[in-house]
Design brief:
The chain has a single domain, classed as Nucleic acid-binding proteins (OB fold (Dihydrolipoamide Acetyltransferase, E2P), Beta Barrel), CATH 2.40.50. Helix content is 25%, strand content 35%. The chain is built from three helices and eight strands, in the order E-E-E-E-E-E-E-H-H-H-E. Strands 1, 2, 6, 7 and 8 form a five-stranded antiparallel beta sheet that branches. A three-stranded antiparallel beta sheet has the order 3-4-5, with no helix packed on it.
């Protein structure tokens, strides 16, 4: 799963998702199911308190090399340098911002984050391990 089969130099054409972090199981990295107090992993059965859930990056991109278009998803801590913080800290910053600004509609903060990510990635060329 983590072995790189080859490298692909390509430019980012678009961002395919607007949620760049997800609550992740510490055992298998699958998305956790969260309710107000607990989390559970449907894949491995791990459970715990919602406040203890860890977050991980997931960035879905449409990329192009000189010949083809590809849909790729980049996971995990390799995105820390691009965001400047871990996924867990970014998630905390977003939650804190929404609470401090009394945002009942989180659409504004989500839109601002998406715009920043688009500015940083779209039109830029990267080498992807595939």
């Amino acid at each position: 799963m983590n072995s790189v089969q080859g490298l692909l130099a390509a430019s980012v054409i678009s961002i395919q998702n607007s949620c760049f972090t997800y609550p992740a199981c510490q055992n298998c990295f699958s998305r956790l199911i969260l309710d107000s107090r607990r989390f559970s992993c449907l894949k491995c059965g791990c459970t715990g308190e919602a406040k203890d859930a860890s977050y991980r990056y997931r960035l879905s991109l449409k990329i192009a090399d000189t010949n083809d278009l590809f849909d790729v998803t980049v996971f995990g801590s390799c995105l820390d340098p691009f965001f400047g913080v871990t996924a867990e800290n970014l998630q905390r910053y977003i939650q804190d911002f929404n609470q401090l600004s009394a945002e009942t509609n989180t659409e504004a903060s989500t839109r601002a984050l998406v715009q920043a990510v688009e500015t940083c990635f779209i039109g830029k060329r990267f080498i992807f391990g595939v």
